[in-house]
Amino acid sequence: MNNILNDKLPTLAKEIKNSVTEKLDNNVDLFANKITVDERLSICNTCKCYVNGICKLCGCFMVLKVKINTSKCPAKKW
């Protein structure tokens, strides 16, 4: 079950690649500003899926993921 779920979710590396590609193609800022990063981490800190710095829904290290401007919360909280 875990492998099936993980195969369907983008890895952090894929998200970074997609973000860089989008940045180059659409002139979008690659990194979120400090206010956005802080707000996202604050939301993560209250989420039951956030354990030891990792989101249990997507498996990403959230201190990195929240900094990518185009990243999305898999629980749609941000």
Walk me through what this model shows:
This protein has 78 residues and is mostly helical. The protein contains 4 helices and 2 strands; from the N terminus they run H-H-H-E-E-H. Strands 1-2 form a two-stranded antiparallel ribbon.
**Mass-distribution shape:** globular
| Amount of helix | 40-55%
**Beta-sheet strand percentage?**
5-15%
Strand order of the largest sheet: 1-2
Q: Runs with pLDDT <50, length 5+? A: 1-5
Task: Calculate the terminal CA-CA distance, rounded to whole Å.
Answer: 26 Å
Structural class, from secondary structure content? mainly alpha
Number of helices: 4
Rg, nearest Å: 13 Å
What's the SSE pattern?
Answer: HHHEEH
**Largest sheet composition:** 2 strands, antiparallel
Mean residue pLDDT: 82
